[in-house]
């Protein structure tokens, strides 16, 4: 008790308290500025280390020395009757109070005050931003095994997003294993050497997280959305399935039925999917883009476990993936976790390249699908470029002018003015290899697909001959720019866009060049790309309608 | 000394609370203004991206459609986009698209909604277009005829497509029948065909006006200037001419009955099995959300786990709550290949029986609560999400505690209460309305065991007989 009283008299407890609060404030400050200034990844750990080492030193100092009117003296040398430790104690109390006030202001101020403009991607007042540089808080790191991690901190909501882009999709398949990339995506949720089938999802959801995944002809993307508190759990789950996946025979059989149900839902019993699959298969004769991503029915029924194992070994290597993390994190903590969890997986030989180049089309191709339908469907597909081709941006703008919104050319001409279609839309494939510029129309009952095809071609050739107006180009630029900002309004959108640009354009920083790239596109670029792409020799036409409608014509 | 110590304790408390509550998300502060004519504006500045989100609601919606004319409010909403102020339909669409904006109107069950997003620099244009849509729509007869006929054909196109999109429309129509909640919000082929231009003008006069209006704006703009311009624009606007219909509360239905919608050649059956559930102001909403999350609201829910992951019967299964101002519906919905129609429906029914008998374990309840809390913040992330929340709360007559206290009420939901709401909100397996879409010739006999069958063809222009 005497020791306790003496510790108290010499203000050791107050110093400990003051030290604790000061340390908390310092750590808080370092974390707060870390995303905005380029601090090295080890800063957090270093600061914590220094503070921890300093703690016993500070206590020892408080015990040994005492402040007197004559300056610092050893406590044992001070005459107790002359001691001013009580006054020093009051000063320490005041200091504790001041630091606490600062702490409260910091914690609440950060939440209540508007964000500082300079911390936000450059937004000139009253105008759409045109800055071409990536926000400096985005950081990336490539691990020794070739896995690249990109981090964009954003502390608006206490949530984190992790998107894992695997460079494997339908284009890596061949007859017999079509749809395997997508099936494999399903298997990634169904068990590892230490986790039962379903445990991945149960663990993630119990920690407040949710997930999904998608497969395209080019990539498979795994998406996790979770509270900050689950960060390490998610790393653990992801690393486990990327290193220790198992494929159990009866699980494969059960999941085969699930995938077939997915196919039945979005292709076999949906006229749009039914026709699109046939058009895709017709437009390509050599390149694997001809395969439906869900897989042909016979392949769904016959994939083997060996197919799955060999696919996992070939494509799910760290050097074939890019991980993007956005939200309430700091780059430092993410890089540390990435080293710990993703670092141990060895790099592998790069997967074999897709060698086949689609040969130039020799003339129009037509495909008819007979199906029960009240409303006939008409699809037109033209071979266009790959995502990274310079023509891809003018083509995207052109498709926007033709099919984007109620003021677009095809909507006005075919839906509003002539009434020969009830809806019209378009999409542009932006993948590793040249894909399609695709138009899809729904006709009213009794509609004549051949006549509507003629009208569509008239509109396309009008652009190829006469180009677009400056007003139309400005409109298309504005739509794309607004979409760009809409994507960047959410942490999920940020993760998706960073990943898309990193994977398909080779560098996530190119995302931020979009506003300038849009300005550089001219109306003449659009006319030129229209003239190259919208040729009947380059076209595949698909028509779906009821057999009786065809007979009646 | 004592006082200083007290101050320190209070400050510590603040720090602790500040750090602790940073895991929760609440609606940010906003300006609320109500004009004399009843119009309400809610404004919130948010400057992370140079966008402005707008969400305007007109209380009313499909429940105020006249008998036999389902889809009238939806058609009116569509017509608001087809020319207004000095602009015809083409010029109006051009004005929005040319600046990369969006501004779309649609009807819901109990409100018409206009929702949009513009770049910050176009905020004046956004307000001008909104004001024109509401106060000076052209409501041109020719545009109306075109839109009505197109919508009829779009319903036919939907019947050629993925039937998951139509299952609940058939389900609610068959469950509620003549009750306003049975109305197909978008209309049916038959009801749209009956709508005249006169109906349209009447609806606009009777059900659109300042006293029904809530406008929420959030994003990169100056709130005070926005208040001024909205107040000037809507200050003199008229009120709606007719009173809103009073919606009688539905009772849960007893026994079973079946609607079979025949789509010859379908290789898959789609089903919706439900009954009357609860209203938006159901007092134990948090407990019900926990129960529904665990039953059929997430990937590891009982329905998905048993029907998809374990049995491989389907790609998806859900339990869906429709919670309007008086009790709406609660339903299980899924699909499976034709040959396993009975197996899938029987399994779904056994799972409904199971939650009545066993409820959920405390571990599961904790997992469900964590899931809801973890997934809640991203629902309030963008300006567009915030405006929708602000406007919808006000439209439903709820205050912000509906959102702000949500996290706490989820966190404090306990197992006993969750078990009680299951008994209250979910129907017993003997009291169910079934809607099954599929190839009738192959399933008609087998599904007779669920109850008396009413059958219509998918090409029937109505959603119920």
Derived from helix and strand composition plus strand pairing, the structural class of chain A reads: alpha+beta
Query: Can you tell me the number of structural domains of chain A?
Result: 3
Q: Strand order within the widest sheet of chain A?
A: 3-4-8-5-7-6
Integer count of domains of chain B: 2
Which outline of chain A best applies? elongated
What labels describe this entry?
heterodimer; A: 553 residues; alpha+beta; Cytochrome Bc1 Complex, Chain A, domain 1; six-stranded mixed sheet; B: alpha+beta; 2 domains; 45% helix; globular
Brief summary of the model shown:
The complex is a heterodimer of chains A (553) and B (465). Chain A is α+β, with helices and mostly antiparallel strands and 553 residues long. Chain A has helices spanning 2-9, 12-33, 43-64, 85-112, 180-187, 199-206, 231-244, 249-268, 271-283, 297-302, 305-315, 331-342, 392-403, 409-417, 449-466, 470-487, 491-505, 514-520, 523-533, 547-552; strands at 65-68, 71-74, 139-142, 148-153, 159-166, 210-215, 220-227, 321-327, 365-370, 377-383, 423-428, 436-442, 539-545.
